[in-house]
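Standup notes
- HV: blocked on the assembly model, inputs below
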Amino acid sequence: MRLVILDDYDLASEWAAKYIRNRIIQFKPSAERYFTLGLPTGSTPYGCYKKLIEFYRSGDISFKYVKTFNMDEYVGLPRAHPESYHSYMWNNFFKHIDIDPANAHILDGNAEDLETECQAYEQKIAEAGGIELFVGGIGPDGHIAFNEPGSSLVSRTRVKTLAKDTIVANARFFGNDLNKVPTMALTVGVGTVMDAKEVMILITGAHKAFALYKAIEEGVNHMWTVSAFQQHPRTIFVCDEDATLELRVKTVKYFKGTNNNNSSVEKSSLT
Amino acid sequence: MPSNKSVSDAAITQFINCRILRDHRLQRDDLWVREGKVLDPEKLFFDEKGYADKLVDCEGSIIAPGFIDVQINGGYGIDFSQASDDVSSGVSFVAKKILQHGVTSFCPTLVTSPPAVYHKVLPQIKVSDGGEHGAGVLGFHLEGPFISVEKKGAHPEQFLRTFQSGGIEDLMEAYGGLDNIAMVTLAPELGGSQSVVKELCQRGITVSLGHSVANLSQAEEAVHHGASFITHLFNAMLPFHHRDPGIVGLLTSDQVPAGRTVYYGMIADGIHTNPAALRIAHRAHPSGLVLVTDAITAMGLPPGRHTLGQQVIEIQGLHAYVAGCSVEEALEAASLHPAKLLGISHKKGNLDYGSDADLVLLDDALNVEATFISGEEVWRKGP
């Protein structure tokens, strides 16, 4: 694992956006060889999306040959609802960049047959050649996407019932009315994300600190599903200082030290 | 081209680098148009996997809904109240000219005239869409002849009328018919007028109160029967009096039925109304303000921007004179409010998805840079 610690949310967002940008540029995507990117939603990646849009606007990057696969979507929420993940992705990312709409994939929470929808999604990922870089976040209960505590660590895309913690955390987007928050979602599985060539998890804020601790300093455990990535060959955790508050000083010092030994990718990230 | 064939093959235009008037605010957002209507780009993206064929760079301009002028008597040498054999050329001429002032729809207005004039003029013009040829005609605004002698203003006294026989019959006799009429201004204190108000409203014609010495109760009764507009507030009516506010009192009357709005036209050139009076009206009832030109034949002569369709000057004037009136409110007073008044806000006067793409591009000083009707550019400012 790499643990990249930045001083604050903005710097963490910038680092992550630069990493994505550099990976895409170095991949040299083309019509014959698309760069496949897995994407999250929520308040954590918001700053990263803003930065990526800036890079697009200044001509640093194009999304013309990028295919995206979002992690999840609520079940039963109208697609045009302002809190749907479709709306989030449109307003915060897709509408500002040059991605081909046919290449932007998001699970359809209003599909006739949810199971078929999930299987078809896995199929689409396979047809795209797998995910090159899967970007994700972490819930306060340590979940990745909507793989709530207790989710199988080899799970695939499926329907999940949301945990109380998640519903409470999401209530703020639904006027703090718990009754308005969707209770089910379609989500990629832990196994689905593990299949990606590389995984980057964004974690910012003190409220995520305990989850980060559980994810990287304790064992692999299906109660903290992000811990599964301890067994992935290429994982980066990008966080701000606040998110490290529950870690051992030794862990933080170690990773801050390694970050000072610049790899070629990182060198360009720091510029 | 780049859209799901099962929905539409029509070209999609995306206006970029602009601030659009939406949800009562100027927001930095793109505007999408297809087949003459404002398009929902999110639906296009997800449902059709579509994107724009053509980009129009607005270079930071404001995009507002095209202006709607509900009171314009003519211009550029044309007088709509003239009984000519070819009214249509006159209306078309003005319709084309007002595009440069950002007006995309209007109501050709006739002042008090003898029946012969109405019988000759009215049948020649139909409600029609705008386009390259000029602004759309929403229907006539007939100001008079059923108005008050005391408040005739510039109207010819000999042609004023009252309701003699059965109210609406008099009206039909005077006008010759009610087709293609968008609005009628009358004085509600005239005997028999209230039933006329009711009938006109039932036929979908907007009734406006003006050129009248009505007191507040008479005005309220008319509103109760459906009247929804006041023709050039303050002018040609009794002045506001604290014991009987008259028609002006409608702005704050508690007798206006729930859910209904009384709109009021203002010629905000600083001449027809003292800016302080304009401010009182606006502060009392900001959502009812409708900007009109009440332009006459002489508008546009000599050439130059001194009229600017008067609307834009008015907007500037409004902005300059009326403290607390934002740019957004001024723009809505020239577009959204007249559309709501005429009951056409489901397709005009706003930039909502599905509305007609009648647009005006403005700079920060609200000078018109370009005008679009149904998404097609119909006028652009020269270099």
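- HV (later): unblocked. The first strand of chain A starts at residue 2 and ends at 6. Chain A has nine helices and ten strands.
- Next: hand off to the docking folks.
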